[in-house]
Amino acid sequence: MKEKLKIFLTEPRTLLWLWMIIAVTGMTRFGHGRENNFLIFKYVYWHVIDRLPLYIHYPQEYFDLNHYGPTFSLIIAPFALPPTWLGMLLWLVALTLGLYVAIRHSLFTRWQQVFIFWFCSHELLNAIQMQQFNIAIATIIVGSYYLIRRERDFWAACLIMIGTFVKLYGIVGLAFFFFSQHKGRLLASCAFWAVVLFVAPMLISSPEYIIGQYKEWYVSLVEKNADNMFSHGTNISLVGMVRKISGSSAYSDLWVMIPGLIAFLLPYLRINQYRYEAYRQTILASVLMFLILFSTGSENSTYIIAVVGVAIWYTTAPWKRGWVDVALMVYVFFFCTMAHSDLMPRFIREEYMKPYGLKALPVALVWLKLCYEMLIKDYRPDKSE
Known about the structure:
Number of strands: 0
Shape: globular
Order of helices and strands: HHHHHHHHHHHHHHHHHH
Mean pLDDT: 93
Distance between the termini: 35 Å
Radius of gyration: 21 Å
Number of helices: 18
Helix content: 55-70%
């Protein structure tokens, strides 16, 4: 009986159905303004069609502001055309299925895949309930890594540029540049797709309008970065945590970002470890976590990206994980993935977790340990301590 249950819980079809159920549960937030994020996305397409400003308030349609690039109008188009309820359902299923496929058809072992699917399920739910494109960003990063490893640089570049032209985050896919066997082709392909994606929205509007909206996009991102500083809903990052705990606006974020960037880049110096898949996958995990920890735009729903990185880190090591690693994973699960849920006591959530951005702390500790391991560990297969 136990063996049958184990087989059932690790069966790809079971995991697919689990994630599809999670996708559909996002529809429970439909109605009474709960689909607000999807409405923002949907109207990006219609505003481009009507050549309306993309980065101003439209209180009759949704609250908050759009911060996605004009190219997003083409990504969301198939989901903007049907009725809202159907478009949102298809959007949630597409987001979830995309990440499932990226993980399922990656270079991860069967055990790694099972662990990632189960460990990330609740964080996926967090993102799904907000209809967030961040799920697609996780897909783009994992997918670009896979495609580069498979020497499909042209399509890896396509994913990287889509992520860049929609939300900028996708540019981190270039962190896998040194793993490419065709570096010149990768760079040329990025240039090609950059031109294509820059011009593509002009097909449903006009060149003058789209160029003007790219300029406005830059302005909106600068303004949003300033607004994020002490926001409870955004800047849930290592950068934001330090800012909120200190309560100071006097210093530059670079005092946190530059040491973080150095720690992120140092493992690239261990070129002799590049030959090991475990080392390359750990860099993938580092990219996924670094992106969220050092972005002032990080919010609760962006942590699907970081938590996938945490799961990859835990499963990738060719040595046996110790009790410290297990404790870190438990800490991530309860104080990151559950940080803003009803399972977290309200007074802790409202008085500590949100005001100080403490959701970032568990991931930050994992990432720092990852950086340490990548500088001293041998990632040869079957290496034990």
